Amino acid sequence: IKQWYQRRVRATQSKQNVERALDSFMEVVATQSDHVPALLGSAIAFMILKQVPRARNQLKRIAKMQWNPIDAEEFEKAWLLLADIYIINSKYDMAQDLLKKCIQHNQACFKAWEYHGYVNEKEASYKDAAMNYERAWQFSNFTNPTIGFKLGFNYLKAKRFVDAIDVCHKVLNHHPNYPKIKKEILEKARANIRV
User: Fold this and answer.
1) CA 76, CA 101: separation in Å to the nearest integer?
2) Contact 152, 145 (CB under 8 A)
3) I want to staple 114 with a disulfide (CB 3.0 to 4.6 A). Which of 2, 84, 86, 136 is the partner?
4) How confident is the model at residue 15 (pLDDT cuts 50, 70, 90)?
5) Following CA atoms 179, 190, 132, 10 in sequence, which dihedral angle do they give, to the nearest 10 degrees?
6) Among 143, 86, 88, 79, which residue's Cα sits nearest to residue 112?
7) Is the pLDDT of residue 126 over 70?
8) Phi/psi of residue 4, nearest 5 degrees
9) Neighbours of 151 (CB within 10 A)
10) Residue 150 in contact with residue 121, Cβ under 8 Å?
11) What percent of the chain has pLDDT over 90?
C-alpha cells in the first residue's frame, strides 16, 4: 500500500492526476488520521501542486508523531522534505532538529548529513560543514559528485587543501567532466599549497 500511494503521485505530474491522487490520500487520512504514507503522499501532491503551506502542515503532522519501524522510510522522507522547506525559508534551527531525528533513526542517511553540511555552510562554519559533508560523502559511497564538490569546497574554505585535492581527484575519477571542480577547487587548492 505504501509504495502504491507514493507511486501514484510520482507516476504522473499532470495536475488532474495529482489532484485525483490527492483525493485518494485525503480519503485515507479522513478515516486514519495517523496514516503516515497517506500523509506523506498528500504532502508530496501538495508540493507538486505548489501548495507548500498545505504540504508543510501535513509534514508537521508526521513530525509530531511517534516514530515506528513499519513507517520508518516514510518518516525519514517526511522529515527531509520538511527540513528542506525550513532551509529554503532560512529556519535552520528547525531544520537541524528534523535532521537530527533522521540521523538518530538512520545514521547512514546521507541526505540528512548533506543538509547539515549545507546549513553549516550557510552559517559560514566551514569546518563543521566539511565534517558533515564527509559523512554524506562516506554514506553516498564516495561517488556522489555534488557532495564531493561541496566537500572539496568546504575543505578549501577550511584551509584543508590536501584533502580538497584528494576529493577532487576522487570526483574526477568517476566523473571526468564534472563542471567547475578543476577550476574552482582543484587549481585553487594547488595554488595555496605552493604558497
Assistant:
1) 8
2) no
3) 136
4) confident
5) 10
6) 79
7) yes
8) -60, -45
9) 33
10) yes
11) 86
Helix (H, G, I), strand (E, B) or coil at 49: coil
> Distance between CA atoms of 35 and 44, rounded to whole angstroms?
14
Residue 167: which pLDDT band, with cuts at 50, 70 and 90?
very high
The three-class DSSP label of residue 195 is: coil
HSE of 189 in the Cβ direction (CA atoms, 13 Å)? 26
Q: What are phi and psi of 49, to 5 degrees?
A: -85, 5
Reported as a single tens digit per residue, the pLDDT across 21-45 is 899 899 999 999 999 999 999 999 9
- Average of pLDDT values for 69-90? 97
SS (H, E, C) 86-146: HHHCCCHHHHHHHHHHHHHHCCCCHHHHHHHHHHHHHCCCHHHHHHHHHHHHHHCCCCCHH
pTM for the predicted model, two decimal places = 0.89
82 dihedral zone (left: phi>0; alpha: psi -120 to 50; beta): alpha
